[in-house]
Amino acid sequence: MTNRERVTKPLSSEQASDCRDAFVKAIYNKLFIWIVEKINSVVYKRLTKDPKSFLSIGLLDIFGFENFKTNSFEQLCINFANEKLQQFFVGHIFKLEQKEYLKEDIVWNNIKFSDNQNVLDILAVKPCNLLALIDEETHFPKGSDYTMLIKMNGQHRGNKTYIASKSEHDTDFGIHHFAGVVNYDSKGFLEKNRDAVSFDIIKMVEMTTNKLLRQIFESELSTNGVKITNNKKVIITPKSSLRAQADKRKQVATLSGQFRQSLDSLMKALSACQPFFIRCFKPNNEKQSKTFDRELCMRQLRYSGMMDTIRIRKLGYPIRHTFAEFLKRYRVLLMTTVCDPKTATAAACCEAICQTVIEGADEWKIGRTKIFLRDAHDAVLERLREQKLSRIALVIQRVMLGHKDRKSFLKKRRAAVVLQKHWRAYRQEQLRRKLQHGFERLASKIRSRKLRLQYLRQRAAALTIQSQVRGYRARKGWKQKREAVILLQAYSRGLLARRRAQKMRGDASLLHLEKEKREQIILELEERLKVIALSQPANEEPEPIVEHDSVESTYDLTPPVEVVELKAPESDHFQRRMVPEPVKEISDEISELEIIAAASISTTPTPSLEEDEDDEFDDGSDEFSFYKFSSLNFQNNHSHTHINQRIRQPLLPHDDEGDILACLTVWWIILRFMEDLPEPKSMDAMSQSSTIISRNLPQRQGRRLSSLVGLDQEILRKHKKKLGVGNRKASVIIEEPENITEDEDILVGEGPTLDRPLTSVEKLHIIIGYALSRRDIRDEIYCQICKQLVNNRNKRSRMQGWTLLSICLGIFPPTDLFMKYLENFVHREPSGYGEYCTERLRRIIANGERKELPCWLEQQAAKSKEPIDVSVNLLDGRNIIVQLDSASTSAEVCQAVADKIDLRDIYGFSLYISLYEKMWSLGSCGKHVFDAVSQCEHEMRRQSKEEKDAPWQLSIRKELFTPWHDCSVDPISTDLIYRQVIKGIKSGEYISDKEDDYVQLAAKHYYIQFGSAYNKDNVQKVVEECIETTLIENKSMTKWIQLISEAHLQGPYVNGRQKTDSVKGELVNSAQHIWPLHFSKFYEATMMSGPPLPKSRFVVAVNWNGIFFMDGRDKRLLELSYLEVKDIHMISDSHVSAQSVSLATVKGEFVLKSGEAVDMVAVIEKNLKGLKQRSVYALARHDASKPDDPTFLVCKRGDLLLVEKDDESSSAENLIKATNNRTSATGVVSKDTVQFLPTLEKPTSDLLELISPGQRKLSIAQNTPPIYETVAPVSLKEFALENFRDCRPCRSTWCVQRGWQGEAVG
User: Fold this and answer.
1) How many other CB atoms sit within 10 Å of the CB of residue 187?
2) Which is it for strands 1139-1145 and 1125-1131: parallel, antiparallel or unpaired?
3) pLDDT tens for residues 554-565?
4) Which residue intervals define the domain MyTH4 in the entry (predicted)?
5) Alpha helix (H) ranges present in 1027-1100?
6) Which end of the chain is more exposed for a tag (fewer CB within 10 A), N or C?
C-alpha cells in the first residue's frame, strides 16, 4: 500500500451510533472539566507565602452502594469508590483514634472492627484483579464479554469474596461487598470500558473552526501526531486496521483506568485534609413517610461502621485539651491550697482540678501532653466555671457601686448647699424688686390718669374738625362726579347712535349688492337645473340644497359684540371702562331688511374633501327617537338635522334671559368646535392675549390650589409652623393670601369677548362651563350636539361631534326628560362610539355629575375610546395601576387598590392627590378623581405651563381610625399604616412635643427591621429613616443613637419573643394615640345656635377619640368625647345650599351648618353605633326590681351596669346578664330598661353625673329649658355667603364682572 493510496471502510449503523455517542460523551466530559477549571481559577485563591498551596473547603457527595435487579459496569465503579471511602473512614476513625491513645500512653483496649481490604484486593490491588482483567480484555481486538467472564471465573473462583457464574451460559458474577452481596451482569462491560473517541473523530475536531471545541480537545490534538493537510476529505480508518495500529501516539486509556486515577487523586486530597463524615440512612425501602424499618436501619448502621464508631466514642475520651489550655480556662476552679500553679507543673494543676470537680477514676486520663475527658464532663466544667466567675463579678460590682454611690452622694450634698445659698439670696432680691416695682407702678398710674384726661379733650376737638372737613370734601367730590357722569353719558350715547346709524347704512348697501349677486346665481342655477331635469328620469326629485331653520335664522344681521373705550376729558381723572354695545336695540330698525329669501345667503363653508354619505342613523319610527323628541319639544320649527348656520332662538324653550343668551353662545361654539363654521379673525390685541377661558363654577372653593388643599393639611401645616419645626424648601406653587376679597377672585385669562380665534380646549371649556354653571341648559346642549350629528355629511365634523358628546357624557347627565331619548340616540350610533358613550352615560348617572372642567387626559381618552391607566402609589413603595374613566370616584379607586393588594380592613383609607409638595384628601366617597386632576392642570395653566406636564400623583393613605381599631385583623393594613407613620415622622408631618415619643417609636422600628440583636450601625440607619433632619441637627446623631440604643436594650424587645406583626401593631396604636388630629376628618362649619363659644366659624375635627371644635390657629374651642354625645341628625333647610346638623350633647345642643354635613353625620353615627355595639357599659333608664324573682337584678335609675355579652341570656325574653357597679350584685335585666354607653373604657364619675338621668342635679337642670343665644355671622360678607341663594347671572351684571360677554347670536 503506497502513501497516496486511500482505503475507505464503511461502518455499520451500530458502529456509527456508538461512534456518535462516544463523541457526544467526550464533548460533555470536556465541557464539564472546562467549566470547573474556569470556576476554580476565579474562586480558588493561592496563599501569599506558598504559591503552590491552597486553602479550600471541599464537599464530597457520592452515591451510596447500588444493588439493583440488573447491575452493570456503572454499579461496579460506584461500589468500588464506596469501598475505598469506607476503608478511609475506618482508618481515620478507628486506627487514628487508637494511635492517638498509644502516643499519649493512655491505657486502652483495642476495638475489633470490620475491614474491607480483601474486597479492595480482589477489585484493584492484587495482580489479575477484576478491573485489570477488564482492561486487558478491552485491549484485545477479539475480546468479548464472554471471554472476560471466563478469565474472571478462572482466576478468582477460589476466593470467598468472589462469586463465580453457576454455569457457562450465565453472564453474571457476584462480589461480597462490606454492605452485602451484589450480582453484576457482564453484558456490555467491554464496550462501556472502551468509551473512547476514534482517531478519525479527533482528526475531524482538529479541522473544525470552533475555537471552544478545539480548546477543550487540546490535549488529544497535541498527542495525535497527525498534521492537517489541504485535502478536505475525511478518511475514516477502523480501529483494527494496520494503519491505525502503526500509529505511535499514546494509547487511549480505558474508562476504568480513568476512574481509578480520579479515585486515587480524590483519596490523596482526602488524606491531606481534615475530613468530617455525614452518614445518611433510609428509614425504609418503600419511600413512605412515618415508617421505620428497624432491621434495615440496623443493617445500614452496621455496614457503615457506625456501631463501632458509637462504641469507641462511648468507651473513649473525645474531649482533649493540652495542659496549658486546660489550666488557662479552668484556673478559677483550682484551689491554691491544694496546688499552687506558681510552683507546681501544669499537669499537676490539671490533675488537681479534675480530682476536685470530677468524681471517678476512669472518667478522665492524664497523658504525656494532653488531658482526656469524657463527653459529659465538658458541660459540667463550663457550668462550674460560669458560677465561679459570676460570684467574683458580683463582689466586684458591689464594691464599685458602693464607691460610686458614696462619691455621688458627697457631690450632691455640696451642690444642695450651694443651691440653698443662692436660692435664699434670690428670694430676698425678688422681694426687694417687688416693693420697688410697686412704688413705680403707683407713680405711673397717677401720671397716666393725668395724660388720659388731656388726650380725651384733644380727641373730642379733633373729631369735630374731621367731621366738618370730610363732609365738605364728600359734597365737593359728589358734585364733580355727577358732572363727569352726565358728560360721559352724553358723549357715549351720541357715539353709539352714530355707530348704529353708520352700520345700518353699510349693511343696507351690502344687502343690496348681495341681492343682485344672488339673483344672478339663482338664474344660472335655474338654467342648470332645467338641463339636469331633462337628463334625469321624471320620477326622481332633487335634493334640497340648504335646510331652513326658520325665517329669522336665514341670515345673521347682528354684528359681534364690540368693546368701546370712552375717554373722559382730561380734567376728570377717571379710568377707562369697557362698555358692551347693546345688540337688541337694532332688531326693530332693520326688520324691514329681513325680507330676503331664505336661500339667498348661506354661511355654509366650502365643502370638505372628507365628505361622504349621509350619516342617517336616527329612525323616526322608534318610540324614543331624537326625531320624535324634536317634534314634541323644539320651538320655532327647528328641525332635528344638521345645519351650518347660527340660530336666533334656542331649540328648547327657556324662561331665563341669561339661559337664552347662553344657549345661543353655546350653539355658536359647537359649530366652531365641529368645524361647521370657520374661526373669526381676531378683533384686537386684548382678544389675542387671552389664553384660556374659565369660569367660577358653582360649588367650588376657587381656582387657587392653596384653597384646594384639604383642611387637614392646612391645619396641620399651621400646627407645624407654630411648633417652630418642619423647615422645608420654598414651595413651587405660589401661595396666595388666605383673605381674598371679592374683586381679587377674578381669574386671569378671561377674555372680554368670544369673537376671536379659540383653541379646541377653549371651546370645550366654554361649552362644558356653561353646562356646569347653568343646569337648565344641559338638555339644550345635548340637543344641539345631537342635531349636528344627524345627517352630517362631513366625516371630520361627525368625529368632532361624537368626541364632544362623549366628553359631555362624562361630565354631566341630561335631565329625565331627555334621558331615554339620549340613550336611544347613543345606542344607535354606527361609528363605534355607541358602546363607549352608553357606558359613560351609565357611569355619570350612577356616580353623579362632575364639578370641574375635563382634564387633558380625558380629552385624549375620548379620542381613543380607551380607559385611562393611572398609577396609585402605596407607602410601601409599590405602584398599583388602575383603570379610570371620567366618572370614577375616590371610593372606586380605593376599592380597586384594596382588591389588588388584598386589603381587607379598608375603612379609613382615603385617596390623596399631590401636586409638588401640596397634598389633599379626596376621601373614600363619591368625589370625582378627575375633578382634582383638572384643578391641578388649572394650576399649571396659572403658572403658564402645559396641562399635560402636571406632575400630579395619587396615593392611598390612612385618614381615619375607628375607636375599636384592631391591628391584628389585617396585617396588610397595619403594614401600610406603619410605613405611613415612619415616613411622616421623617418628613416632619408627625410632630410631637415629647422627645420620648420619637425614641420609643424608633426602638419599635429597629426591632421590626433588625430584630432583637443590637448593632450600632443599624441604630444609625433607624435614626436616618425615622428622625427628622432638623431634630438630628438640633441634637447630634450620637445623642439620638444613644437614646434609641438605651430604649431598645431596656425595652421589652430584647428577648426577641414578640412577633414583628405584633410590634407593628403596637407602633400603629402608639401613633394613633400620640397624633389623634393627624388621623381626623375636618369640616368647615358655622355655629347657628348653641352654647356660647369664642368664635362662630370654626373647623370640626372628627376622629376616633371624639369631636373637636377648632379655629384656624389650632386652638381647641371645645372637646367632646363620644360619651358626651346624645344624638346627631340632619336638619333640612331648602332656603340655604349648605346643610345643617343638630349635635345634642350633655353641654347643650349645637346647630352647625356645613357643606359636608352628610359626611360628618355619617362618620359620627358610625362611631357611635360601633361603640354601642361593642360596649359592655350600660346605664339604667329607670328603677327595676322583681321581688318574686331573685334572678332579676335590682337597680335604680342612673346606675352603671357591667353587661356580660354571652349566649346565656334569653334572647326570646330580650334579657341580658349584668352586674350593678353600685351594689356589685349580678342578675338579668331587660334590654329595654338599659342604655348602652358609646365607650370601651369605664366612664369616670364626673361623666356619669352629667349623663346619668337619675341624678337629682341633672333632673333639675332638665326641667328648665336651656337658653342658648343664636350666633349670627360676624360680618355682612359671611351672612351673604351663608344665606344668599345662588344667583342666576344675567347679561347686564355677571358678564361684566366675570369678564365674559354673552354673545347675542342671530
Assistant:
1) 15
2) antiparallel
3) 333 233 333 333
4) 642-863
5) 1029-1034, 1037-1050, 1060-1074
6) N
